[in-house]
Amino acid sequence: MFEKLKEKLNDFKKAIDEKVKTVSGAGPGEAGALPETAQPAPASQPQEAAPEQQPPAAATQQSAATQQQPGATQQPAAAPQHPAAPATPPERKPEKTGVLNRALALTRGEVVLTEKDLEGPLWELEMALLESDVALPVAESIIATIKADLTGQHKKLLHSTGDVAQDALVDAISKILNVNTLDFDEYVRNHARPVVISFIGVNGTGKTTTIAKLAERLKEQKYGVVIAAGDTFRAGAIEQLERHADRLGVKMIKHQQGADPAAVIYDAVQYAKNNKKDVVLADTAGRLHTNVNLMEQLKKIGRVVRPDLTIFVDEAIAGNDAVERARLFNDAVPVSGTILTKADADAKGGAAISIAHITGKPILFLGVGQEYKDLKKFETQWFLDRLFER
Ligand SMILES: Nc1nc2c(ncn2[C@@H]2O[C@H](COP(=O)(O)OP(=O)(O)OP(=O)(O)O)[C@@H](O)[C@H]2O)c(=O)[nH]1
Ligand SMILES: [Mg+2]
Predict the structure, then answer these.
(1) Which residues contact 388 (CB under 8 A, 6 or more apart)?
(2) Which residue has a Cα nearest atom 14 of ligand 1?
(3) Buried-most residue among 1, 38, 90, 279 (CB within 10 A)?
(4) What is the pLDDT of residues 129-174, one digit of tens each?
């Protein structure tokens, strides 16, 4: 899970490590050799003549990455902004990251990275994030955070310099993922009864399956659960949910196919109130985020039922499309959080970061298989540990 992103993040860490070695080795015209007191890179990092991270090398990657990016047409600004293939060399600014500052830092066993040092590695990191399904604005925001964190600062050389890059990355990603944290279990425990939760998303992302998984989870926690068959649109949808309800021994409220989903969910809430049930899980039909009428129907559900939580369900393997979907669903009915399904498939990890950033709401659970038990509470720390193998 998330292997690809993990690999790319490691590449960035190594690139910064090498860059720091180059800087601390002080190339021509730079700060000069390290004083004897300063011990640079640890022995575990051999000082082979590492090739410089040259932005021009990224130029070939740039075109490759641009081709791979379905979002490239939406984001035409990306390529020209990049420092690859500079027409004229950028002016050297003797500001706080100048030669003297670097030299002074080196005497203390520290290194100062300039924007120029970082431009190659950061460019490659941005490409890597894009290839891992992190959306462009999100990747840009991560890059900006890391750049601000790493440039002009005195970083100790005495421990692995790669850690510095990793810390900056971890920080940038966790800021996005820790947005408006919502502890689902705590919410259900403390909220007035019944807790009404609707599930929305495009077709086939796993809404119905996720409802069944959550119903099982809530039942195990001894809550009384009611399921609302709010997908009155797709043939067979009511029967599909009913099979789950029967297997789980959970009450399901349904109307006929074609009925108003808001009315079905409303009835389920009434049933829960009359029968002292704790939680109502409301299914809805999958719909394209571009279908205005169906998005209006979601708004109606919002007005009539006023769900306590609206959960956006999408696939962990969703590419850049997920961003646009998340944005439009969130515009129609503000989502409280996201559940990412199919994380057991070859998920790159970027969707979690992108969707959290776009909606400004946390990832709540991951679907990790097709069984009822295959639902994992999303924890930022766990995700970061996986990405960085800490
Ligand atoms: N591998 C895997 N498959 C999943 C997961 N969650 C759902 N699925 C599968 O995805 C397919 C679609 O799931 P549904 O729950 O029917 O999706 P839906 O969003 O309700 O679909 P519509 O009602 O058509 O919009 C089914 O074959 C599920 O078994 C998951 O976490 N991992
Ligand atoms: Mg469904």
Answers:
(1) 6, 9, 166, 169, 170
(2) 206
(3) 279
(4) 888 888 888 899 899 988 888 886 665 544 455 677 788 888 899 9
